[in-house]
Task: inverse folding
């Protein structure tokens, strides 16, 4: 018995009229020497795909999810069966989870942990013999009301302790499931008002919590990459992990920079007032581009709508950064995206993933052509060519001084600039989008 009606999804090419087919995602096609599926490493998010029921502040569940029952363990197991069926039919090889997506909390932490043992054993046994793997695990340190003041940044030491216990277990489970990464999204790690907050103390605690997590991972031999997922707002007004550059300066202050990379989410980048590719670029040039949460926000709404990515322009520029990063290595493209409340049938999930996978496949194809033809590279190289020789080279090589530069400037104050040609480059990008 299956939980979905749709059949295995195949690549049918751009002219197919079958909505249950890939138009661009052709998993075995080789792009820049790698199979598309190895470049993209798509992942299913356990929370949005198998757990969320479409509730919003105005109404209850809308989703038809036949795997949900009244029994938490039974539901957890059925979700695993449904998840594996879904991934196999779509040819997706990775999944991501929060501890609390796997199974609902029990009455005590001990009961919750027992439940997690049962369910993660079941999941591990079901994964055997499939080619499905865990991209990353994480702990939900935001949903329960105990986290009203934060988790590791709570004013309450008991909550700090609880958070550590929860993460300890989540790392153990991620290890058991062969997780290739472990994510920290600082859900409630931020604050609402300075009238009641000691930010310095909270940030010290946050750093200590991350350090202990890494120490524990090393102790038990968990080799997965640790990732921090920046987000500027929601739920708190001031989230401590605002964006990549903020997180980097935090990590550097506490000497944690060697142990963490970034999980960049598109919708979080735009909430921070950045483009998605800006965040990827900042992570890449600092050597910390770890993984991606592939989704998109809505231009007209100011919150985290977590929609399936369908914007080819953004996907192209994102994949351009990924290509320049030499791929995502142990990371992947996790669809941290939810179907709209009105797309309530189970098969809508498949249609949504198809849309997202095709968008990124298309983005990869366009970006690879742009990269191979070195269109932007050559333009950028030329734009900075004043640093290739003469005084520019001395600046680049850090072999000059204010005195020498003053002398130079006095003799060369008739400055000539060249055009940035932004509109021309945007038109060329459009040409690549139309032609590939
Ligand atoms: C919420 C975040 C969250 C993380 C994992 O906005 O995107 O889902 O990806 O905790
Ligand atoms: Ca996310
Ligand atoms: Ca989000």
Result:
């Amino acid at each position: 018995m299956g939980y979905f009606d749709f059949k295995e999804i195949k690549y049918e090419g751009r002219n197919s009229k079958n909505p249950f087919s890939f138009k661009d995602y052709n998993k075995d096609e080789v792009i820049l020497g790698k199979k598309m599926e190895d470049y993209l490493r798509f992942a299913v998010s356990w929370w949005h795909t198998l757990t969320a029921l479409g509730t919003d502040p105005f109404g209850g569940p809308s989703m038809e999810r036949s795997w949900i029952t009244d029994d938490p363990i039974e539901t957890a197991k059925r979700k695993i069966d449904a998840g594996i069926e879904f991934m196999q039919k779509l040819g997706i090889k990775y999944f991501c989870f929060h501890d609390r997506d796997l199974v609902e909390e029990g009455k005590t932490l001990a009961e919750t942990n027992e439940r997690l043992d049962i369910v993660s054993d079941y999941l591990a046994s079901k994964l055997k013999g499939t080619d499905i793997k865990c991209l990353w695990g994480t702990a939900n340190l935001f949903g329960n009301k105990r986290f009203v003041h934060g988790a590791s940044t709570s004013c309450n030491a008991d909550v700090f302790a609880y958070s550590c216990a929860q993460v300890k277990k989540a790392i153990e489970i991620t290890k058991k499931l062969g997780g290739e990464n472990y994510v920290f999204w600082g859900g409630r790690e931020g604050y609402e008002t300075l009238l009641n907050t000691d930010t310095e103390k909270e940030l010290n605690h946050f750093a200590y919590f991350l350090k202990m997590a890494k120490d524990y991972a090393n102790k038990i031999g968990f080799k997965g990459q640790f990732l921090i997922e920046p987000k500027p707002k929601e739920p708190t007004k001031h989230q401590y992990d605002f964006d990549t550059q903020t997180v980097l300066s935090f990590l550097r202050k506490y000497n944690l920079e060697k142990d963490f990379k970034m999980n960049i989410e598109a919708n979080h980048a735009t909430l921070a007032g950045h483009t998605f590719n800006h965040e990827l670029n900042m992570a890449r040039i600092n050597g910390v581009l770890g993984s991606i949460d592939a989704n998109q926000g809505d231009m007209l709404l100011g919150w985290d709508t977590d929609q399936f990515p369908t914007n080819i322009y953004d996907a192209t520029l994102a994949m351009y950064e990924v290509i320049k990063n030499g791929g995502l290595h142990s990371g992947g493209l996790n669809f941290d995206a939810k179907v709209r409340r009105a797309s309530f049938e189970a098969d809508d999930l498949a249609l949504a993933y198809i849309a997202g996978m095709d968008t990124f496949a298309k983005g990869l194809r366009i970006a690879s052509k742009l990269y191979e033809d070195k269109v932007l590279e050559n333009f950028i190289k030329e734009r900075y060519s004043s640093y290739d020789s003469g005084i520019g080279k001395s600046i680049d090589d850090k072999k000059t001084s204010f005195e020498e530069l003053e002398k130079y400037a006095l003799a060369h104050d008739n400055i000539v600039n060249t055009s940035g040609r932004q509109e021309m480059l945007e038109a060329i990008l459009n040409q690549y989008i139309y032609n590939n």
Summary: Residues 229, 265, 293, 336 surround calcium ion (ligand 2) (CB under 6 Å). The chain has a mean pLDDT of 98. The radius of gyration is 24 Å. The chain has 16 helices and 14 strands.
